[in-house]
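Open question from group meeting: does this chain pack into something compact, or does most of it stay loose? Before anyone orders reagents, we agreed to write out a predicted structure and look at it together. Recording both the input and the output here so the notebook holds the full record.
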Amino acid sequence: MINIATAPVKTYLSKSKIPGFDYVINPYIGCPHKCVYCYAEYMRKFTGHPEEWGDFLDVKTCEVPLRPAKLFRTRVMLSSVTDPYNPYEKQYELTRRLLKQLLFCQAQVYILTKSPLVLRDLDLLKQFPSCEVAFSYSSADESFRQLAEPGAGSTADKTNALKTLHEASIKTAVMGAPLFPGISDWKALIELTRPYTDRYGFDSLNMRPAYQRKVLTFVEKHYPQLVPLYSEIYVQEEPTDYWQKLGEEIQNYCRQENIQAEIYFGSSRSYSGG
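Structure tokens returned:
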């Protein structure tokens, strides 16, 4: 049972440290998707919650509305450390209320989600001067999704939502992130989604010390044949060129197929196609 509470804040806005965005809005604190690899899990220590990450959700409240003079034509991301369309958004409609304010401000919005619930707000998205919706996939394999992201939207539901948005002339993107070595079939992901998306982004599985053991235990349990590969990449001290080679392979494929893609492996970024 997830613990839900309210969290009063002075503002919904945070100055963005992500290139290409002026502000970030995280309507919620926590995320019930329970992704085994969640990089935002470090935030738990700032919340005062005794529950594990994924077992609580704080709904932010703020009495101060967003200001048009501050946000006019700025680039705003929803969201970076939560999913703005987690299952409880259906009940609280906080993201929808924020979108209405952002529309009034004439902001440019970028939405990153794992949920088809975003379709509920298609009426608003169509009105923005600039709007892009990106769906995050760690794999095109639904059986893996059920293991690694048990609370997130299904592969089929996300893809159908991607198709609906694309057909409604909403700009779309697919984030292949994070790619699990030996598990995530990035070509299968492209084949599944290419008719419905404008561009791709690919990111590696970067394991911080805080959750490395959790991910390695997951691999040991469900993919024991891959333990040597993960040990080579993440445990051994000797440097590996795994991500460099994979990045080059993806880059070359996307260039040949004229696919617009950005590859975020390590600290570097590369572009292909488009």
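Observations to bring back to the group:
The chain has a mean pLDDT of 94.
The first strand starts at residue 3 and ends at 8.
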